[in-house]
Amino acid sequence: MDEAKDTEKDRREADTAPLPFRAAVDALRSARLRPQIEVEPTPPPKRLAPYAHALEAAVVDGDQDLADGRLVLLHDPAGHDAWQGTFRLVTLVRAELEPEMAADPLLPEVCWSWLTGALQTRGLTYGEPSGTVTRASSHYFGGLSARPAASQIEIRASWTPREGLGGVPDTAAHLASWCDLLAQVAGLPPAGPGDASVVTLPQRRGPQSR
């Protein structure tokens, strides 16, 4: 019952949101994405901005997830000094890696360049980018010792999409760029001939089961 009330409240808030935010959300819903990527709405954070919309996505191969992530669109009609704008995109992307790949000292810089490169490839302008790239390794002992060591990469980032006509950023293109990043982290080949120079990760050692 509480979940139903929250859903209805979110729907009412969306109906009364400023027009630029509603247009930006509608554009997200209309974006055309790679068939290997499943995207669905998820409850947004409540305290980061007056208005927010969130999506979660997974790069799927059969019944296995090769990578997953979350993208949040924030909007503050009054503007935000740290954003230098009224919109902000915030993301988390995760994937498992081969241990030797995770040990590459240049991996964090390469992963960050994948994010900025995905935006630039689609001709998007943005400002105030910030984020972290984290790699972690897990080793199992005792009753779990039969499991192979696992390594994971995690990209957390945010940026301000430049606003176009009516003060609305091209959120559909930003979502497509974000999905390009997910595909790269998952080790998929480039989506088109124009992306042939993109470096991708090798196939995952053990994709996560859904």
| SS content category | alpha+beta
Question: What is the string of SSEs from the N terminus onward?
Answer: HHEEEEHHEEHE
Report how far apart the termini are.
Answer: 27 Å
Mean pLDDT: 82
Provide the number of structural domains.
1
Features:
210 residues; alpha+beta; 7-stranded antiparallel β-sheet; 7 strands; disordered N terminus; disordered C terminus; DUF3000
Compose a concise summary of this entry.
By secondary structure, this protein is an alpha+beta fold. It has five helices and seven strands, in the order H-H-E-E-E-E-H-H-E-E-H-E. 29% of the residues lie in helices and 35% in strands.
Can you offer a commentary on this structure?
This protein starts with a helix and ends with a strand. The longest helix is centred in the last third of the chain and has 16 residues, at 171-186. It contains 5 helices and 7 strands; from the N terminus they run ααββββααββαβ. A hairpin with a 4-residue loop joins strand 3 (64-80) and strand 4 (85-97). Residues 1-7 and 193-210 have low confidence and may be disordered. Strands 1, 2, 3, 4, 5, 6 and 7 form a 7-stranded antiparallel β-sheet that branches. The protein has one domain (2-190). It has 210 residues and is α+β, with helices and mostly antiparallel strands. It has helices spanning 2-15, 19-30, 99-102, 107-121, 171-186; strands spanning 37-42, 51-61, 64-80, 85-97, 126-138, 150-161, 208-209. The chain is 29% helix and 35% strand. Helix 2 (19-30) packs across helix 5 and helix 4 packs antiparallel against helix 5.
